[in-house]
Write a structure and sequence with these properties.
Helices cover 31% and strands 15% of the residues. The protein is of the alpha/beta class.
Length: 216
């Protein structure tokens, strides 16, 4: 039987598809409707759902809103809530009650994650760098040494030219190109801008399963 994973702050399912490919059955929760989420989905407060339903799942992933830590929002002086600490406390409580249950928190560079693994699109042959951090309750490593970025980024406002990597943020141009760059074929422009490539959580999910085998 495949382990069940609860995907919190789920968005349109970039993380979920990666975990599904790694070998998990995934259920998503988000405060906003997610009509393109590819698996079972519940609209509601993610942390409230976690505390009410944690016993129904084997493991957990959370991608709390990252606006509090992005450079663009800091430059503009915008204030956004930080859900990372509350998420971490909830996961810690669950692991004290059930140590075999494992968790992952994902966020952007600059966020206050503890001992995170940094993944990059170039690690997986994608044409976007899109660094993301993963705080894991188990031992997780990078797939390869982080190579120097040599491909130029396409300038904002136009699709990439051959040989360029794409920066999929904000009101970018080129949804078709962004889908190819991210390894995602079901999302809209706004959904792509807020997602991570499924390849990242396929890697993380496989390491989680390997860690469980070692601990068994």
């Amino acid at each position: 039987m495949r382990p069940r994973l609860l995907d919190l702050f789920a968005g349109a399912g970039g993380s979920a598809v990666g975990y599904n490919r790694a070998g998990f059955d995934v259920v998503g929760v988000d405060i906003a409707p997610q009509p393109h989420y590819p698996y079972e989905f519940h609209q509601g407060d993610a942390l409230k759902y976690l505390l009410e339903h944690w016993r129904e799942f084997d493991h957990y992933h959370a991608s709390p809103p990252c606006q509090a830590f992005t450079n663009a929002q800091k430059i503009r002086g915008n204030d956004h809530p930080d859900y990372i600490e509350a998420t971490r406390r909830a996961f810690d409580l669950i692991r004290r009650a059930s140590p075999r249950r494992q968790s992952v928190i994902e966020n952007v560079p600059g966020s206050p994650l503890e001992l995170p693994v940094t993944l990059c699109g170039a690690d997986f042959g994608l044409t976007t760098y899109r660094h993301r951090l993963f705080e894991c309750s188990f031992d997780a490593k990078r797939p390869v040494p982080h190579e120097e970025h040599v491909a130029p980024l396409a300038k904002m406002g136009r699709p990439p030219k051959p040989g360029e990597f794409m920066h999929v943020v904000g009101h970018f141009s080129g949804v078709r190109e962004a889908r190819a760059a991210m390894g995602i074929d079901w999302m809209s422009r706004d959904e792509l801008a807020g997602s991570i490539p499924p390849a990242y959580t396929t890697w993380i999910g496989r390491q989680l399963l390997a860690a469980l085998e070692v601990a068994a």
